[in-house]
What does this fold into?
Amino acid sequence: MDRQSRAWSTLKTSIITVTLIAGLTAAAGGNGAPSGSHYNLNIIGVPKSKSADMTGSSGHRIFVPLEGKSQILLGPGDFQVLDANGTDGSAKFQLPNPDPENDGYTVYSVFARALGKPGGSSTTTTCATDPVSGEVYCSTESMVMVRNKGKSSFSNVSRELLYMYVDLDGDGTVERIPLFDDRLQDYFWSYDNNGLKLLQLRFYPISTNVN
It folds into this structure.
Protein backbone atom coordinates (compact mmCIF):
# COMPACT_ATOMS: atom_id res chain seq x y z
CA MET A 1 0.00 0.00 0.00
CA ASP A 2 1.49 3.38 -1.05
CA ARG A 3 1.54 6.52 1.13
CA GLN A 4 -1.56 8.04 -0.49
CA SER A 5 -3.56 4.84 -0.03
CA ARG A 6 -2.49 4.58 3.62
CA ALA A 7 -3.49 8.20 4.22
CA TRP A 8 -6.93 7.65 2.68
CA SER A 9 -7.42 4.47 4.72
CA THR A 10 -6.50 6.31 7.92
CA LEU A 11 -8.84 9.20 7.09
CA LYS A 12 -11.71 6.83 6.27
CA THR A 13 -11.25 4.96 9.56
CA SER A 14 -11.17 8.26 11.48
CA ILE A 15 -14.39 9.50 9.86
CA ILE A 16 -16.18 6.23 10.57
CA THR A 17 -14.90 6.14 14.15
CA VAL A 18 -16.09 9.70 14.82
CA THR A 19 -19.49 8.84 13.35
CA LEU A 20 -19.74 5.74 15.51
CA ILE A 21 -18.69 7.54 18.68
CA ALA A 22 -21.24 10.28 18.00
CA GLY A 23 -23.96 7.68 17.53
CA LEU A 24 -23.07 5.75 20.65
CA THR A 25 -22.86 8.95 22.68
CA ALA A 26 -26.39 9.83 21.59
CA ALA A 27 -27.49 6.34 22.56
CA ALA A 28 -26.13 6.64 26.08
CA GLY A 29 -29.25 8.26 27.52
CA GLY A 30 -33.01 7.89 27.27
CA ASN A 31 -34.17 4.56 25.87
CA GLY A 32 -30.72 3.50 24.69
CA ALA A 33 -31.26 4.37 21.02
CA PRO A 34 -29.49 7.16 19.12
CA SER A 35 -31.35 10.38 18.48
CA GLY A 36 -32.25 11.50 15.00
CA SER A 37 -34.08 10.15 11.96
CA HIS A 38 -34.47 6.40 11.55
CA TYR A 39 -36.56 3.67 9.92
CA ASN A 40 -38.81 1.86 12.37
CA LEU A 41 -39.93 -1.78 12.01
CA ASN A 42 -42.24 -3.59 14.46
CA ILE A 43 -42.32 -7.39 14.49
CA ILE A 44 -45.61 -8.31 16.14
CA GLY A 45 -46.34 -11.73 17.63
CA VAL A 46 -49.99 -12.78 17.23
CA PRO A 47 -51.78 -15.88 18.58
CA LYS A 48 -53.76 -16.55 15.38
CA SER A 49 -52.67 -16.63 11.74
CA LYS A 50 -53.60 -13.76 9.47
CA SER A 51 -55.71 -14.70 6.46
CA ALA A 52 -55.44 -11.45 4.51
CA ASP A 53 -52.94 -11.11 1.67
CA MET A 54 -50.40 -8.57 2.90
CA THR A 55 -48.06 -8.69 -0.09
CA GLY A 56 -47.12 -5.17 -1.09
CA SER A 57 -48.96 -3.78 1.92
CA SER A 58 -45.93 -1.71 2.91
CA GLY A 59 -46.25 -0.21 6.41
CA HIS A 60 -43.75 -0.63 9.20
CA ARG A 61 -44.87 -3.91 10.75
CA ILE A 62 -44.57 -7.64 10.20
CA PHE A 63 -46.84 -10.20 11.87
CA VAL A 64 -45.35 -13.48 13.10
CA PRO A 65 -46.69 -16.36 15.21
CA LEU A 66 -46.66 -15.67 18.95
CA GLU A 67 -45.24 -19.17 19.38
CA GLY A 68 -43.05 -20.89 16.80
CA LYS A 69 -40.81 -20.15 13.84
CA SER A 70 -41.18 -18.07 10.72
CA GLN A 71 -38.85 -16.62 8.10
CA ILE A 72 -38.40 -12.97 7.18
CA LEU A 73 -37.04 -13.06 3.63
CA LEU A 74 -34.56 -10.28 2.88
CA GLY A 75 -33.91 -8.40 -0.34
CA PRO A 76 -31.64 -5.44 -1.23
CA GLY A 77 -33.11 -1.96 -1.69
CA ASP A 78 -34.57 0.94 0.25
CA PHE A 79 -36.19 0.07 3.59
CA GLN A 80 -39.64 -1.36 2.91
CA VAL A 81 -41.96 -4.13 4.07
CA LEU A 82 -42.90 -6.15 0.96
CA ASP A 83 -45.00 -8.83 2.69
CA ALA A 84 -46.24 -8.16 6.23
CA ASN A 85 -47.76 -11.59 6.89
CA GLY A 86 -45.24 -13.95 8.46
CA THR A 87 -47.92 -16.09 10.08
CA ASP A 88 -48.14 -18.18 6.89
CA GLY A 89 -44.48 -19.16 7.19
CA SER A 90 -42.67 -16.20 5.67
CA ALA A 91 -42.74 -12.42 5.35
CA LYS A 92 -40.49 -10.21 3.22
CA PHE A 93 -38.46 -7.13 4.11
CA GLN A 94 -36.21 -4.97 1.95
CA LEU A 95 -33.13 -3.18 3.31
CA PRO A 96 -29.90 -1.71 1.90
CA ASN A 97 -26.62 -3.58 1.61
CA PRO A 98 -25.08 -2.90 5.06
CA ASP A 99 -21.39 -3.35 4.21
CA PRO A 100 -20.60 -3.54 0.46
CA GLU A 101 -16.84 -3.68 1.05
CA ASN A 102 -17.05 -6.14 3.97
CA ASP A 103 -14.56 -4.05 5.94
CA GLY A 104 -16.51 -4.46 9.18
CA TYR A 105 -17.93 -0.92 9.20
CA THR A 106 -21.66 -0.81 8.53
CA VAL A 107 -23.35 1.84 6.39
CA TYR A 108 -26.20 1.94 8.92
CA SER A 109 -26.89 0.38 12.32
CA VAL A 110 -29.76 -1.62 13.83
CA PHE A 111 -31.01 -1.21 17.39
CA ALA A 112 -33.60 -3.51 18.98
CA ARG A 113 -35.71 -3.80 22.11
CA ALA A 114 -38.38 -6.19 23.37
CA LEU A 115 -41.77 -4.76 24.34
CA GLY A 116 -45.11 -6.12 25.50
CA LYS A 117 -46.01 -8.36 28.42
CA PRO A 118 -42.95 -9.46 30.44
CA GLY A 119 -41.82 -13.03 30.00
CA GLY A 120 -41.71 -13.36 26.22
CA SER A 121 -38.53 -13.88 24.21
CA SER A 122 -37.38 -14.39 20.64
CA THR A 123 -34.27 -15.57 18.82
CA THR A 124 -33.37 -14.23 15.38
CA THR A 125 -30.65 -15.83 13.26
CA THR A 126 -29.42 -14.69 9.86
CA CYS A 127 -29.35 -17.47 7.25
CA ALA A 128 -28.75 -17.91 3.51
CA THR A 129 -28.36 -20.58 0.82
CA ASP A 130 -25.23 -21.79 -0.96
CA PRO A 131 -25.91 -21.12 -4.68
CA VAL A 132 -23.92 -24.21 -5.73
CA SER A 133 -24.85 -26.92 -3.23
CA GLY A 134 -28.25 -25.57 -2.19
CA GLU A 135 -27.26 -26.03 1.46
CA VAL A 136 -28.75 -23.55 3.94
CA TYR A 137 -26.25 -21.93 6.30
CA CYS A 138 -27.18 -20.05 9.48
CA SER A 139 -24.94 -17.74 11.45
CA THR A 140 -23.22 -18.93 14.61
CA GLU A 141 -24.43 -15.69 16.25
CA SER A 142 -28.07 -14.85 16.96
CA MET A 143 -30.02 -11.93 18.37
CA VAL A 144 -31.75 -13.06 21.57
CA MET A 145 -34.32 -10.64 22.98
CA VAL A 146 -36.08 -11.14 26.33
CA ARG A 147 -38.90 -9.00 27.69
CA ASN A 148 -38.00 -8.51 31.32
CA LYS A 149 -39.98 -6.51 33.86
CA GLY A 150 -39.51 -2.76 33.94
CA LYS A 151 -38.17 -0.38 31.33
CA SER A 152 -37.01 -1.88 28.03
CA SER A 153 -33.95 -0.32 26.38
CA PHE A 154 -32.49 -0.60 22.89
CA SER A 155 -29.26 -2.44 22.14
CA ASN A 156 -27.10 -2.45 19.02
CA VAL A 157 -27.76 -5.70 17.11
CA SER A 158 -26.03 -4.79 13.83
CA ARG A 159 -23.53 -7.63 14.16
CA GLU A 160 -26.23 -10.28 14.57
CA LEU A 161 -28.75 -9.04 11.97
CA LEU A 162 -26.58 -7.58 9.21
CA TYR A 163 -23.94 -10.33 8.99
CA MET A 164 -23.54 -14.09 9.01
CA TYR A 165 -20.66 -15.89 10.71
CA VAL A 166 -20.13 -19.27 9.08
CA ASP A 167 -17.37 -21.64 8.00
CA LEU A 168 -18.16 -21.87 4.29
CA ASP A 169 -15.03 -23.65 3.11
CA GLY A 170 -14.81 -26.11 5.98
CA ASP A 171 -11.33 -25.05 7.08
CA GLY A 172 -12.39 -24.54 10.70
CA THR A 173 -12.30 -20.74 10.47
CA VAL A 174 -15.54 -18.79 10.77
CA GLU A 175 -15.93 -16.15 8.05
CA ARG A 176 -17.84 -12.87 8.27
CA ILE A 177 -20.37 -12.48 5.45
CA PRO A 178 -22.52 -9.32 5.19
CA LEU A 179 -26.07 -9.43 3.90
CA PHE A 180 -26.29 -9.84 0.12
CA ASP A 181 -22.67 -10.95 -0.31
CA ASP A 182 -22.69 -12.97 -3.56
CA ARG A 183 -21.07 -16.01 -1.94
CA LEU A 184 -24.57 -16.86 -0.73
CA GLN A 185 -28.12 -16.10 -1.87
CA ASP A 186 -31.72 -15.97 -0.59
CA TYR A 187 -30.86 -14.31 2.72
CA PHE A 188 -33.44 -14.41 5.52
CA TRP A 189 -33.91 -13.95 9.24
CA SER A 190 -35.06 -17.10 11.00
CA TYR A 191 -37.40 -15.79 13.69
CA ASP A 192 -38.12 -18.16 16.58
CA ASN A 193 -40.75 -16.65 18.86
CA ASN A 194 -41.46 -17.72 22.41
CA GLY A 195 -44.30 -15.44 23.44
CA LEU A 196 -42.74 -12.06 22.58
CA LYS A 197 -45.56 -9.73 21.51
CA LEU A 198 -43.47 -6.92 20.08
CA LEU A 199 -39.90 -6.62 18.84
CA GLN A 200 -39.01 -3.09 17.79
CA LEU A 201 -36.17 -2.52 15.32
CA ARG A 202 -34.74 0.88 14.46
CA PHE A 203 -32.34 1.49 11.58
CA TYR A 204 -30.12 4.57 11.96
CA PRO A 205 -27.74 6.19 9.42
CA ILE A 206 -24.70 5.72 11.65
CA SER A 207 -21.85 3.24 11.37
CA THR A 208 -21.01 0.34 13.69
CA ASN A 209 -17.62 -1.34 13.82
CA VAL A 210 -18.29 -5.09 14.06
CA ASN A 211 -14.62 -6.12 13.79
